[in-house]
Amino acid sequence: MAPFLEMSGISKRFGGVHALRGVDLTLQAGEVHCLVGENGSGKSTLIKIVSGVEAPEPGGRITIAGQEYPHLNPVRSTHCGIQVIYQDLSLFPNLTVAENIAIGQHLGGLRSVDWAAMRATAGSAMARVGAEFDPETRVAELPIAGRQLVAICRALAADARLIIMDEPTASLTRHEVDALFALVSELKRAGICIMFVSHRLDEVMEIAERVTVLRDGAKVGTFAADTIDDRKLSHLMTGHAFEYDVHAGNVSAAPVVLELQGFGRDGDYEDVSLSLRSGEIVGLVGLLGSGRTELALSLFGMNPPDRGVLLLDGKPIALSTNADAIRKGIAYVPEDRLTLGLILDQSITSNVTLTVLDRLAGRLGLISSGARQGHVAQWVSRLGIRVSDPENPVKTLSGGNQQRVVLAKWMATHPRVLILDSPTVGVDISAKDGIYGIIRGLAEAGVAVLLISDEIPEVLYHSHRVLVMRQGRITRDVRTGQTSEADLRRAVNA
After folding, report:
1. How many angstroms separate the CA atoms of 415 and 326, rounded?
2. Do 281 and 420 form a contact (C-beta atoms < 8 A)?
3. Domain with residues 5-238, CATH architecture
4. Does domain 256-493 have CATH number 3.40.50.300?
5. What is the pTM of this model?
6. DSSP state, 160?
7. 398 pLDDT above the threshold of 80
8. Mean pLDDT, all residues of the chain
């Protein structure tokens, strides 16, 4: 059977930078094809060429359903059945579900809106994916998984034959990922091709039939998913081999820094008791609604408990605000770095210095430019943050470097306890490895680390102990050297 999409010899320069170098790509109808590579490998540029946002260099060929095009534009790409669901979903939060789904049929020209037709279009698309929410609901009121369904429905309403999903699982829980994968299987059976772009290699291996690897703008190869594993994939993407060993040194003799006794908050968690030792990394895993983020917020003074005791160095303390937590040496890196961890429009310098302004101020309360620059230079060097100019907005950095800025901001407070909520979401394999190295370095310096994650391998290979949380309670506490990925998955999903 002829492929739906063929691209050959696709190259693209931006100034003197080769974003793509002679890339070939073939996608079959009804195929789940994953595209992987580090940040800067060319994935985004290739997607922009497929969707018609960028034109390739002369000499490249694009063939869709047997028709050759020298290049595409967004309108032509859409007419060919190509739809891209970006990580931010590109929805209109102030419009209803029905309006977002059917908006493509009501663009251009001056005419009245056929509301009945719009509702019918939305209803048909929603029925195909089993979406059961009210089509008159405003998109802003939906959870992230619901908004993602709306984006998929919008693609189906536009008669999509190829749906490109860019980091579709970055903000989803494991339960929501399972639901998405079931939907992808349904779309595949309907003959729709899915191109799946993700940094989560275990998910790539779970969903893909074939995988195309890009590195430095060139195609490394296309591989049948059943012939490789995530370790081989990591090596193909980076050219480096990464360790997959349990780092479970014995810290049982280290002093307890933080301890919880019978912690409870109505509706969030109940009877939680745990301890964190100096230099210990404790992983915490659990499904949506398990109470793990609510517990983390309580430890940071933002979600006060209704009962229980919190001890720091053996002494009971009470935290009413996050300022209390910071003064006591507790730092928190939130899961959503884009809205809670960073001020995106502000400079890298402003973000790194935000938590230590009082320490940088002189006797008159003023902060010299030299003090700011010296502080930022220290942390940029220490954490290996790739930045051309510290005065650039932090939003200009890659996801991995943004996360390092968040870490720098909190490490500058010299915390006793560091809570990390999903610290590697949306970053590539090399950036992840660098962040893991930073976390290990903090532990070796005596910081007690609570590592919250959806990814079982992340906590297994980078923690001393793992706690499993279910329905607001800690149900398991096990040393990482005495368990396995399969065992932890069973405990999480039991």
Report:
1. 8
2. no
3. 3-Layer(aba) Sandwich (3.40)
4. yes
5. 0.71
6. -
7. no
8. 88
